[in-house]
Amino acid sequence: MAVKINGINHFAISVADLEETIQWYSNIFGFYVVNRSEIPGADIRVAHLQGEGFLLEVFEAQGSALLPEDRKVPNRDLMTQGNKHMSFGVPDGRAAKAQLEALGVEIAMVAEVDDTYGVFIRDNTGNLIEIFEEKGDVVFNQHKSGGK
């Protein structure tokens, strides 16, 4: 029997500057800090940011390696195994793209595949984020209507 899950709880990222990242996610997506802590003996600061329906766990580890350049390019990132990006659903992808551009956010790529519309951006550390239009009857949107 499969394990029953409630949905997404949190997504975790590692960044170069915790305070800059908190400000970026607050300004761009309206996230806010709900908790701050440190990992004892590891020189790692942690912040939990509340987003719409989930938490973003942000780590700042002193002396951490920079995000490799290939991980900042959507299709090249697919050539490295592991987690790829987080995706935020929006009702209108083109309107969200215009809002992001007005906020000074660089668009890394627009993806129009199989009747979907997505916009890839990078956060202040270079982590990929997809802004995904939740419209139509494509597999990525079926969870909104209870489809399996």
TrEMBL record:
Record domain VOC: where: 7-134
Keywords: Metal-binding
Pfam families cross-referenced by the UniProt entry: Glyoxalase
Coiled-coil residue spans: none
Origin superkingdom: Bacteria
Metal-binding in keyword set: yes
Organism field: Brotonthovivens ammoniilytica
Protein name (Swiss-Prot/TrEMBL): VOC family protein
Keyword Transport: no
